[in-house]
Amino acid sequence: MSLRSQVALVAIAVVGALALGAGQVLVLAPAAAPAAVVRAAVSGAEVSPFFLGLAAALFTSADLSSRQFALTLLQMNDRTLVFIAKTAVLAASGVLTAIAVVMLLVPLALSRADGVLHVSPLAWLALPALHLLFVLLGAGLGMLMRSPVSAVFVYLAVVWALPLVVAIAGIWAPSISVSVLQFAPVTLTAAVLESATQGTAVLRFVGLDTALIIAGLVSVRRWGIR
C-alpha cells in the first residue's frame, strides 16, 4: 500500500470527524444542554478512529513487508526499539489530529451553548483517546501480520466482523458472548463516549492494545528475516 493511501485514510478521518461533529452540533435544539453539545461535537469519534487505526495497520505492515527496510532491521542491534519509536510517532499523530479537530469544533460548540467549556474535560478527551487507542490497535495488528493485505483483513475482522460473529454465537453461549463483546473495539468505542462507562472502557481498550503491541514486538524481535 502506498503512502498516498495512508494519507487518504488520515484525511478521511479528519474530515469525517469534523463533518459529523459539526453536523450533530448544528441539528441540536437552540436550548440544548452544554453536555449534549459536547457529546455532539465529539460524535465523530464513532467514525474517525476506525480510519486512523486502518492507516496505522497499513503503515506498520508495509514497513515490515519492505525488503529494503527488512535488511535495515537486520543491521540494527535492537529492532524492537525501532518499532517502539514508530508506534510512538503514530500514536502522537493520532492524538494531534484529534486535538486539531476538537479545537476547530470548540468555537461552533460555544455558539450553541455558553457552558461547553465547563463540561468535564473527559468528555472532550474522548476523541483524542479513541484516536490513540485505535492507532495502537492497528499498529499491533500490523506488526503481527507483517503484510498489508493480511493486516487489512484482520483489522476489518476484529473491528467489524468479530462483534457480529460473537453476537450470533451468543445465541448458544450467551455468557461467553457477553464477555468477549466487552473487549470488542466497537463496543468499547460506544462505552468510551458515555461518561458512566468511560473509565472502564478505556482500561479494557488499553489492555487489548497492550497485549497486541507486546505480541507484535515479540513477533518482530523473533522474526527471521530472509
UniProtKB/TrEMBL annotation:
Transmembrane region(s): 87-110, 122-145, 152-173, 201-220
Alphabetic keyword roster: Membrane, Transmembrane, Transmembrane helix
Presence of keyword Transmembrane: yes
Name under which the protein is recorded: ABC-2 family transporter protein
Lineage, highest ranks first: Bacteria, Bacillati, Actinomycetota, Actinomycetes, Micrococcales
